[in-house]
Every structure is written in structure tokens, then in C-alpha cells.
Amino acid sequence: MFISKGTLAVRLLYLILFGLIAAVPQLRAADNQDFDTYTVRVDAFWFNARPAGVFHGTRGDGSFNLQQDIHFNTYTTFTGSVDWKFTRKNHLLFGITPFDRTKHFVVNRPITFQGQTFNIGLAASGELQTNAYAFGYQYDIIRRKRGHIGIRAQIDLFDVVGTVSSSAQVTNGTFHVSQRARGSLRAPLPIAGPVARLYLLSDSDRLYVTGQVLGMYFFGYGNFLSTIDTLGLTVTKHFGIRGGYQLAQRFNINSKSNRIGLNLTQKGPVAGLEFSF
After folding, report:
1. Total number of domains constituting the chain
2. Does residue 272 sit within a domain?
3. Full residue range of the structural domain in which residue 65 is found
4. Cβ atoms < 10 Å from Cβ of 238
5. How many CA atoms lie within 13 A of 7 on its CB side?
6. Which terminus of the chain, N or C, has fewer Cβ atoms within 10 Å?
7. What are the two backbone dihedrals, phi and then psi, of residue 99, each rounded to the nearest 5 degrees?
8. What is the DSSP string of 127-180?
9. CB-hemisphere CA count at 13 Å for 110?
């Protein structure tokens, strides 16, 4: 039976939650000696992303597929966050994940988007920009020496631009003028879900796992899901390394008569550094 990486990420978070809950009765006596003690934490990750999905034009005016039409490959980008833990159980958070990828390709089927039609054989380029900014609050429902379980609520602001263009050229003896079709989407999405961190050794903060699942269903408007699950190693008091897998974005925003529609998934492995002060 095939299990997707996104499903594995969700299951890993459930295992973390179960492990932490199972450890809670043994940890009550050490509440004031958290391994995870900090005021400000900065995470900076390298992200090997693979975008997939479909961009729909306004008024149902055509679409293009990021994989079938433009053949986007994986590419590297940055994702980072800042966590200000202003009390033992309360956090304010900010995150950013920028994407900007351009791919040159030859049109293998007629593509119509935003009133422009790109015919078979044209040399064209496709660009996808998806900048995501997150502002959130987290409360740790359970916080013990070996970790915590919390609930996070945040607003994700998405600024998405999709472009298909071709220069003036001659294909099969026919002259084609230059063309450019562009669609943009800006959407604030409220999302929420559980987050967790569990230190695996009872007498050390050296090794830990983290997980989170954030999402929301917006009824006729669309839906959103993101996950990140990592294994971490504390190198010094203020410095650690982490690696894992991230479903950065999987969202569907339905196209209406006057706006762009988008079905987009960006996922892949992550590796990076964690700084705690």
C-alpha cells in the first residue's frame, strides 16, 4: 500500500504527541527544569521544494499545469521563522517562505491563460512566485522538562504570481508575436493546529523531534494544509541542527468570476540551523 509523504508527516506528529503524553506523568516533578529554555529562537532552513498544481485564469479563462505544461523541477529556497517565547507557555511567531522559479520550455499542447494562447512548438517560459508570510500565536497546553504540546493559530499571507511568456519567433514557417499572460493572487488565510517537541533522552537535551500540522477548510473558497517534521541535535546551549520533511503548502483556492484560482502543492526535505537565546 502506498503512503504519501504528507500522510507520513501527519502520522509522525501523532507519534510525537503520543510519546509526549505518555511521558507527562514521569515529568511532573521537573517542571521548572525545561530542556527547552529560551526567550528568542530563530530557525533557518534550506528547503528543496517541488511545486505542483494548476493555475486557473479569471472568468474561467484557461489554465496551465506547473508539471505537465511547464515541467517545473525541484529547486532550493529558504524558509525561516522567529519565535519569541514571552512567558513560559506563550509565544509570538513570524515566518517567511519565499519561492521564485522560472523555467524555459517548449509548448507541447495549446496553453490558454488570461486571454493569451500559446501554440504547440513555441519556446516559452513560465514563472511562479509564491511568497508566504506567517504571523501567529502559540500556547503550550502541556510543557514539561522533556518537551511540550501546543496549539498554534496564525495568519498566512500569500502573494502568488504566475506568468507564461514567449518572445516573437518563427515556428514551422509561421511568425508569432511576443505574448505574456500573468495572473496574481493575494490571500490572507487563517490556519491553526497542534505543534510538539519531544526530547528523546530523559537525562539530556541533545536529541529531539519536532512536528506540527496547520490547516483550515474554507468551505466553498478552498482549503489549506502545511506540515513540518524534523529530527534535531543540540550542539551547544545556543545552537542546534535540524533536518526533516516539509509540506510547505498544499492549498486550493477556487476560481470565481473575478479572481484567479490556484491548486498548489510545494513539498520537500528541509535541513537547517536553530539558534536559541
Report:
1. 1
2. yes
3. 5-38+48-202+215-237+247-276
4. 12
5. 4
6. N
7. -130, 135
8. EEEEEEEEEEEEEEEEEETTEEEEEEEEEEEEEEEEEEEE-SEEETTEEE--EE
9. 6
13: in domain = yes
Provide the grid cell at 160. Answer: 502568488
Q: In angstroms, rounded to a whole number, what is the distance separating the alpha carbons of residues 148 and 176?
A: 60
Burial (CB count <10 Å: 0-12, 13-18, 19+), residue 258: exposed
CA distance 175 to 26: 76
- Give the integer Cα–Cα distance in Å for 112 and 110: 7
DSSP string computed for 81-102: EEEEE-SSSEEEEEEEE--EEE
The predicted-structure confidence for 198-253, as pLDDT tens digits, reads as follows 999 988 899 999 999 999 988 777 888 999 999 999 999 899 999 999 887 787 77
Task: Measure the CA–CA gap between 53 and 126, rounded to whole angstroms.
Answer: 13
pTM of the shown model = 0.79
6-26 pLDDT, tens digit per residue, is 444 445 555 555 554 554 444
Taking phi over 0 as left and psi of -120 to 50 as alpha, with beta for the rest, 9 belongs to alpha
